[in-house]
Amino acid sequence: MPDPSPAFGREASSRPSRASLRTTVVWNVLQDALDRRAEATGKAALDVLDTGGGSGNFAVPVALLGHRVTVVDPSPNALFALERRAAEAGVADLVTGVQGDVRGLFDVVERGGHDAVLCHGVLEYVDDPAEGVRNAVAALRPGGTLSLLAAGVGGAVLARALAGHFTEARTALGDPDGRWGSGDPVPRRFTAEQLTGLVEQAGLAVGAVHGVRIFADLVPGVLVDTEPGAAEALLKLETAAAELPAYHAVATQLHVLAGKPA
């Protein structure tokens, strides 16, 4: 099957886009997990839940693999964009958008009815991250997979320091929520230990932790766009560093892949 989306392809036929530099690590891990789940269950089409999935950045590529995807998002505009995007990709019959959020998840979806749950960019904004993870886990079938993606503290500290905002960097370093000030648009950031702790407390076994956007947000765009081979080399560097614990501390985002006991 061809790559489901040019932003996610494992084998790029042309220079990687800026979007792919930020998403390929997560996509490759997720696609492998879905392949393993499909093989283990003997099902060609899995039931996937994408909480906070917005306009379908992951949902549509997952549907292009042949899986059924339900997207829960509080924004009507995002769900409208999701519907249009799914139709344009030819997977409208596999993608369902539902208005809601992770806190009231079981008002709109089935408990324990999904082979995989994506919880990407959600925990930063909920009042109770532990509750959000518990609900995501409760939506999984036995043996199901959780893909959790959240903002990392270290990446914010490093970014503020490199921009010359040293006081803000120090504030983020010491703030319980990893925020650099009142103007910070992200309500909460996490360390890898905090995210894995939330997952384990919810009863899942952590399979892998990846640093995401370790270098991509720090490298000047003009260098990536103008130097021959720079984008490809940066993508390979991101992939190579993603699983190394030493680089989790400076990643813009952290990805945790975990499994529910069968």
Automatic annotation (TrEMBL):
Superkingdom of origin organism: Bacteria
Keywords: Methyltransferase, S-adenosyl-L-methionine, Transferase
GO biological process terms, semicolon-separated: methylation
GO molecular function: methyltransferase activity
InterPro entries according to UniProt: Methyltransf_12, SAM-dependent_MTases_sf
Gene3D superfamilies: Vaccinia Virus protein VP39
Entry keyword Methyltransferase: yes
S-adenosyl-L-methionine found in the keyword field: yes
Transmembrane segments: none
Domain Methyltransferase type: 49-146
Protein name, UniProt field: Methyltransferase
Organism: Streptomyces termitum
